[in-house]
Automatic annotation (TrEMBL):
InterPro entries assigned: AAA+_ATPase (IPR003593), ATPase_AAA_core (IPR003959), DNA_pol3_clamp-load_cplx_C (IPR008921), DNA_Rep/Repair_Clamp_Loader (IPR050238), P-loop_NTPase (IPR027417), Rep_factorC_C (IPR013748), RFC_lid (IPR047854)
N-terminal signal peptide: none
Biological process according to GO: DNA repair; DNA-templated DNA replication
Family recorded in the similarity comment: Belongs to the activator 1 small subunits family.
Spans through the membrane: none
Name by which UniProt lists this protein: Activator 1 subunit 5
Amino acid sequence: MVQQEKSINLPWVEKYRPSTLNDLISHEGIIRTISKFIKEDQVPHLLFYGPPGTGKTSTILACARQLYTPAQFPSMVLELNASDDRGIGIVRGPILTFASTRTIFKSGFKLIILDEADAMTLDAQNALRRIIEKYTDNIRFCILSNYLNKIIPALQSRCTRFRFGPLSPEQILPRLDYICEQESVKISDDGKQALLKLGNGDMRKTLNVLQSTWFAFKDVTEDTVYTCIGHPLRSDIENILNWLLTEDTDICYKNIQELKKLKGLALADILTEVHKFVHRIEFPFEVMAKLLDKMADIEYRLSRGANENIQLTGLISAFQLVRSSVTSDQ
């Protein structure tokens, strides 16, 4: 009964996490290669890298379950999130202790999983390099990272690297349909497309948004998905673009500010969506190039913490200049 309640209360991303290599829905070449490593007992140190939510952690946990029984798991597998403790202390402490001790219950190697290893300091990575060399007969490391360039070359050269690319909509959709069926989720086709668009190849994000939307609205549509996470609706962006292209500066500023406050929208999200719509407008090349350049500058300034109100006036001014250029050319 307790186990059933625990399963019910789990986030869907954990509840439906693949438990075996056969359950994984993508990266067939990688899974086939790793399965061969395990079958032939020739597992090297591994480095999985790629965007979040693409199956790196699920893959290595499925490998660990194939290598060890549930009873062996606690003594044979050490799973650490390197972003929790990034310094050299975590390498000299738990990692060194686990790597240097042998178990009497099972021959073969133990497994250390280092998630988000790109958050580790350079000193910690250099210390880890020495442990990998010294205890290879007793231990195998699997290093998981979002950004390969943040892992020092010395560590990269000691591991077999596999890149996990973003999942395609064709790979995500069957899993999405299965979870919706299991949880009796009412979802529309435009709701599915909104989830796929927002997820952008990230299965974890897609499932988290799905669960949040379902619990908040009990109906998953394009509008409820966007409303749940505070993302601008298509109709909102169409209105904003219409104001930018037709209204005076004062009216445009007032309308967008009111919409932002009413819907709780962030200017960065508005800018991203407006950018997608802008490409559909037939501006002269020079005008389009200047507009996109100014939008890129505004996005950069927002990412550096600039004032949203000032950047909104900058966005409106950029469109005013575009309108002036198009009018003068005509």
